[in-house]
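Lab notebook page, bench 4
Experiment: in silico fold of construct C2
Operator: M.H.
Input chain length: 82 residues
Purpose: comparison with the prior construct
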Amino acid sequence: MVEYIYDGQQRLWVGLYGLALTDQAPLSYRDPEGLKALLALSIVDEFGGEVGAATTRLAGMFQSALTTRYSFHDRPVFGEYV
C-alpha cells in the first residue's frame, strides 16, 4: 500500500491518508480540472449520472500526464522565433 506520493509541482512527498476536508488534494497543483474529471469518472455510477466526452478526455489526459510526467515542469521553456 502506497502511503505517500511525490508531487513534483510542490517538490515534496504528500501523504495520502489522514487528509482533512480542508486539505489540498494530492497532485491537484498539476491539473485541477483533470483531477476533477477523473474524480467524476470514479463516482458517476454511484449517482446514476453520465459523464460527457470532454470530461472523459480531461480525465484521460490527467492520467496520461501522471505517467509521462507531462505536467512536471523542471523549468520554464520559452520558444524562439526567428
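Observations: The first strand starts at residue 4 and ends at 7. Residues 31-72 form one domain.
Next step: discuss at group meeting.
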